[in-house]
Design a protein that fits this description.
Number of helices: 22
Distance between the termini: 54 Å
Number of strands: 10
Strand content: 5-15%
Strand order of the largest sheet: 1-10-9-6-7
Structural class: alpha+beta
Helix content: 55-70%
Shape: elongated
Radius of gyration: 30 Å
């Protein structure tokens, strides 16, 4: 997310080379358009740079331009196309036997991996790029690689390592001003997250001085650091104003969630936390991951091939020198002939071995895919069994619930428990999707059942759930929940709405406290509410997969459609739930479902 500033800084290195005036002008324009995020102008300018350098002596300039074009494409325009462009750089470099090109292809992959959330593999790519740089580009600054490693260390929350890599970047000979500013930015972030308020201000001052000397505004990273400065000084309103200048949606959403949390506005914090999760889910798409995994495999094979070729070349040179000294022409000729024959045989054997390995790898991958699909089917079955499928139909109450996951496994949940004449129930929606959300859902379901056995009030259940789930929650996952308790004799209902969609009571949305979601902030105390008498009333609780379901025109099902349906008599609890489900399915039509569909209907008699 933050790595883009080092790419901007490195792109400026185009202007640092001793280039002809015309080419210098083109690279300056490319840098300006990149920094200003003028997409059309940037692509036009970088095309001119590539056209002018592809078949020239300026191969370093060519590959640098290509790599940052791929990164820009991935970050701002089209993720799949960005990966493909990085792939094309690699193929171009391989076809032209360019180690310089391999360096830039590897660096581009590291940047794309980091922005996709593949932190471990991004770190591996930056380390590999560092080796290639030292071997083939000794004059090239290693600062971008070290700054890439700053970012991966920052993701791992290893702030001492962040500072160490930033220091190494600053020690690099010929480091350009933008990379100096970026290094000090990482020092600011590390000190802020270590709670070193004074250290942050010192680093911020050093950074500001560099920016003043070189006339830089710091771009995207600069404004992010300004947000942190306001947070460091607890100037929350100023921090919010500064977030509006952030271009990265993930940064903007995450910072707003953090600021609203500090301000105690949990409703807004939840909204922006959800937005952050949605951005992360879109970034970590399976298609982009698959492409980068394929790219990484090809690069690894090429690294191995290059090392083998270099070793064989060294052997060739040694044997030819020995043959010239120790033997006559005919012996040397025969020696070379025999050597080449053996080498050819060895190469054929090696290629056959590689081919067999490739077939084995393909077979292994196919089996792994089948195994994963099988395990996901099993996980889905297990998840279904965790949710109740038998519901009470008594003279005093009728209850029914259903959940349809959007993927193989879902993050929605529901549950109920009848303890004498007390009916406990809940509906929840875990942030994110897929297996992580399903595992979190299982934990919440288990804990809810345990707490219900203690016959606690809904607000107490929410508070205890939150305390347990917020502890060591490094992933930032959370669950919105509606937790209710109905005394079936008196009809009295106690409930707590923890950041969840307001249910409908007799076809009207309930007005309620805007509690925080469960799992984000350990210090939250949840407020409970009540309905005096539920007799003769219908309660419909659901997750946002219902009202936010979209059709092929990206229109949402919406609150009003749901409200209008529930103002009709749709039958008993099961018939009502199924009627709503069918209405949503008909509305969505052929569009891909984007979220789980969960609903619970309770009819009191």
């Amino acid at each position: 997310m933050m790595l883009l500033m080092l790419t901007t800084g490195t792109l400026h290195a185009l202007a640092e080379e001793a280039l002809p005036p015309k080419l210098q002008s083109l690279t300056d324009e490319a840098y300006r358009a990149y920094s200003a995020r003028e997409t059309d102008n940037y692509f036009e300018a970088v095309k001119k740079v590539k056209d002018a350098t592809e078949f020239s002596d300026y191969q370093e300039t060519y590959y640098r331009a290509c790599s940052y074009e791929a990164i820009y494409m991935f970050e701002y325009v089209d993720r799949s196309k960005g990966v493909q462009m990085a792939h094309d750089i690699y193929h171009h470099a391989k076809a032209n036997k360019s180690n310089v090109g391999m360096y830039f292809a590897t660096f581009a992959l590291g940047t794309i991996r980091e922005q996709s959330g593949n932190i471990g593999l991004a770190e591996k790519s930056f380390q590999q790029a560092l080796k290639l740089k030292k071997k083939y580009l000794p004059e090239e600054s290693a600062a971008p690689c070290y700054l890439g490693l700053c970012e991966t260390a920052f993701h791992r929350k290893d702030y001492e390592e962040v500072k160490e890599y930033a220091h190494k970047a600053l020690e690099e000979p010929g480091i350009i001003p933008m990379n100096q500013i970026t290094a000090w930015s990482y020092k600011c972030l590390a000190r802020y997250n270590q709670g070193d308020s004074i250290g942050f201000e010192e680093a911020y001052k050093e950074r500001a001085q560099l920016m003043a000397e070189h006339g830089g505004q710091g771009g995207l990273f600069g404004e992010l650091i300004n947000v942190y400065q306001a947070k460091n000084r607890k100037q929350w309103n100023l921090a919010l104003q500064r977030t509006e200048k952030l271009i990265h949606q993930q940064n903007k959403c995450a910072q707003k969630a953090s600021i609203y949390e500090h301000m105690g506005d949990y409703q807004q914090a939840l909204y922006w936390q959800k937005r952050t999760r949605a951005v992360i889910d879109s970034i970590q798409s399976s298609e982009a991951r698959s492409q980068t995994n394929e790219f990484d495999t090809e690069l690894a094979i090429t690294y191995a091939e290059n090392e083998t070729k270099e070793q064989e070349l060294a052997k060739d040179q040694t044997m030819l020198a020995a043959g010239g000294i120790l033997a006559a022409f005919i012996i040397a000729f025969l020696s070379v002939y025999l050597y080449r024959s053996k080498r050819h045989a060895k190469e054929m054997k090696h290629k056959n071995s590689e081919l067999l390995k490739a077939y084995d790898k393909l077979e292994e991958t196919t089996k792994a895919k089948e195994r994963i699909e099988s395990e996901l089917r099993i996980a889905r079955d297990i998840q279904k069994r965790m949710l109740p499928h038998v519901f009470p139909r008594r003279r005093d109450v009728d209850l029914y619930a259903m959940m349809t996951p959007a993927k193989e496994v879902g993050g929605d949940l529901y549950g109920y428990a009848l303890l004498d004449n007390l009916l406990y129930f809940c509906v929840g929606d875990v942030s994110g999707k897929g297996v992580p959300a399903a595992l979190y859902m299982a934990e919440v379901t288990r804990m809810f059942r345990t707490l219900v056995d203690g016959k606690l009030q809904p607000d107490t259940i929410a508070t205890r759930l939150n305390h347990a789930l917020a502890e060591d929650n490094d992933q930032g996952m959370f669950v919105t929940m509606f937790i209710g308790l109905i005394d079936l004799k008196s009809g009295h209902m106690e409930y707590c709405n923890a950041g969840h969609n307001p249910p409908l009571l007799n076809g009207q949305f309930m007005k309620m406290e805007s509690n925080a979601p469960i799992g984000l902030w350990p210090e939250v105390e949840f407020a409970g509410e009540k309905v005096d008498d539920m007799h003769g009333k219908t309660l419909f609780v659901y997750t946002d997969g219902i009202n936010e379901a979209e059709n092929i025109h990206q229109e949402q099902f919406g609150d009003e459609r749901l409200k209008a349906l529930l103002q009709k008599d749709l039958g008993d609890a099961r018939q009502t739930s199924e009627a709503i489900h069918k209405a949503v399915e008909d509305f969505v039509g052929s569009a891909e479902p984007s979220d789980d569909l969960t609903k619970m209907c309770i009819k009191m008699r």
